[in-house]
Amino acid sequence: MPRDLILWWPFVDKENSIQPSTRVVELRGVCKSFNVGKPNEIEILHSIDLTLDRGEFCAVMGPSGSGKSTLLNLIGLLDRPTQGQLAIRGEETTQLDDQALTRLRGHAIGFVFQHHHLLGAFTALENVMMPMLGAAGFSNAEITARAMALLDSVGLSAFRDQASGSLSGGQQQRVAVARALAMNPALLLADEPTGNLDSKSADAVFDLLHRVSRDQGTTVLFVTHNPELAGRCEKTIQVVDGRVVG
Amino acid sequence: MSDTGLPTDSANSIPRWMPFEWLVAFRFLREGRVQTGFIIGGVAIGVGVIVFMSALLSGLQANFVKRVLTGQAHIQLLPPKEVVRPLYQNPNDGVHGHIVQAPLQRLKGIDQWQSVTGQIRDLPEVSVVSPVVSGSALVLRGAASRAITVLGIDPDLYFQIVPMPEKMVHGHARVTVSDILIGTELASDLGVGVGDKLRISAANGNFNTLVISGIFDLGNKAANARTTIVALRSAQSLLGLVGGVSALDVTVHDVYSAETVARHITSLTGVEADSWIKTNEQFFTAISAQTTANTAIRVFVGLSVAFGIASVLVVSVVQKSREIGILRAMGITRGQILRIFLLQGGLLGFGGALVGAILGFGGLLIWQQAERNADGTVMFAMSFEPSLFVMALVLATVTGLFASFAPALRAARLDPVVAIRG
What we know:
The complex is a heterodimer of chains A (246) and B (422). Chain A is built from 7 helices and 10 strands. Chain A has helices at 68-75, 98-108, 124-134, 140-153, 169-180, 199-216, 227-231, and strands at 23-34, 42-53, 57-61, 83-88, 91-92, 109-112, 187-191, 219-223, 235-240, 243-244. In chain A, the strands form 2 sheets. Chain A has a 6-stranded mixed β-sheet with strand order 6-7-8-3-9-10. In chain A, helix 3 (124-134) packs across helix 4 (140-153) and helix 4 (140-153) crosses helix 5. Chain A is globular and about 50 Å long. Chain B contains 17 helices and 12 strands. In chain B, strand 2 (87-88) and strand 3 form a beta hairpin. In chain B, helix 2 packs across helix 14. Chain B has helices spanning 9-13, 20-31, 33-69, 113-121, 155-161, 164-167, 184-190, 221-226, 232-238, 258-269, 276-279, 281-319, 321-329, 334-370, 386-403, 405-412, 416-421, and strands at residues 75-78, 87-88, 95-96, 126-141, 144-153, 168-171, 179-183, 197-202, 207-216, 227-231, 247-252, 272-275. The longest helix of chain B is centred in the C-terminal third of the chain and has 39 residues, at 281-319. Chain B is an alpha+beta fold and 422 residues long. The A-B interface holds A 1, 73, 76, 78-79, 98-99, 102-103, 105-107, 110-111, 113, 117, 119-126, 129-131, 133-135, 139-141, 143-145, 147-148, 160-161, 179, 182-183 and B 2-4, 6-11, 13-14, 16, 20, 23-24, 27-28, 30-31, 322-323, 325-334, 336, 416-417, 420.
């Protein structure tokens, strides 16, 4: 089994088979406020404009509380902007209902969090299978083959039957990356995925994400506080006080 | 190895026939196995109590009813009572003679009893119709005499209502025109046994000499001292009711429908019909009160089961909020999350009920072995109806589903951002 990430799987969402230079993320004047209409209303993000194309590997930097995670949540369709336009793969999302957002999120976006957030009730392989099990239309053989290949591509096929909780931090994060890639997403959002890892594991996870972006054309938005890792990305944006400044 | 050439140990641990929601629900329950074990134990105790009590009380009630009905028909049709009608000269003159005396009730037969019997027998609710003649008489044996009730029966029919062969302590339940069955007390009082002759004298002057073919025990001293059973024809000639019957004894398939059937018979035939429910009103009220108490206990135990499941799932939603957030992030819909937690409630209810039904059944077996009559026989037949267990399973599962609805809704409505942040 090749260790490169695979594009061959037969049940890949055709919508994800996007062409080079396709716009994957587009934000126009996006604002996000909390406690809207209340005396303590506060605007966290102010008129964000941002575009990300296919295969871009973009680092997001900024001080704590600057709005990086809120920006990621909006782009990941976990939250809705208060104002502005947000399109994923060219599809405007602000008017979509929860069902449609969930579907789009499941098929187009993968998440990797600072804490791996694997499901403790499942093994490493089962965690990778989970997004495919939750989505309809895939056969057992397809799901198994895809999950095995993904786990192999992150170098953890030998640990497939281990309970996710028994893996090391770096291994768990690599399983989380494999899980995020299960639906072959167009966009991978990584919120400080190396924040809890030692430098060796952090390098391994970063390299893995970089390889995903390069080989598979997945757009990666990578939040980090590490300037060295950010420097290795093709593009870096700074979020300061809720504004993209560079 | 799979056909992809890859080992499939893990893959085999996920049965693909199992829908995603079932898989996650099972795994979540398995992951919190101590919590799951405790709540299943709680549900099991609740369901066990319901099963045990329901079977015990229905067995007890069936036993009471059986004992009450063992010596009587479910419905008895009686001839109309004699009434005195004031004399009228004509409608304008009014009543002649305002003072009337209550009449003595002489033995009367049911008018057209054969056709009435045919009408009743055709009713689907009715199982047996038995004509009887009963009246008072005196039994003479040397210088001794005793007042008795003579009951004339057709043994083929009457024994289907009152199983006299089971009650015989001496001789046989044989009732030909020359036979008489008497109770143990009467036999003792008169100092007679099977094969002895008795002279029966009625108030109308008729008499007959009959041979004792059997001695019975009805389980009631007074009844054993007074009741005698003879052939229908013997009683008819002795009591002066030749060709007639003084009552029709009826049994129905459902003893608790006796009152309804009795009313229907009265409206159909015009003959007064009394059900055992009417003639044993106090007893039936006690049975109804017991049923109500049993239902109340079931409802309260059911409520405690429901609250137990709900509280565990509320805790589970809090504990699993991060997992719920992750599932939502990976594209799992609110509906799927709702179903995962509903299923957990249903599975807890079903699992608890399954264990509870076994516990209840075991408890019943132990109780039946431990509690016995003085002679070692079973105190009363327990009611092991499969429907009781099926009902317990279904009700506990439905209760679990309902109880889990609020926590499941809460889980489905969790904001994934807040949930993931924890």
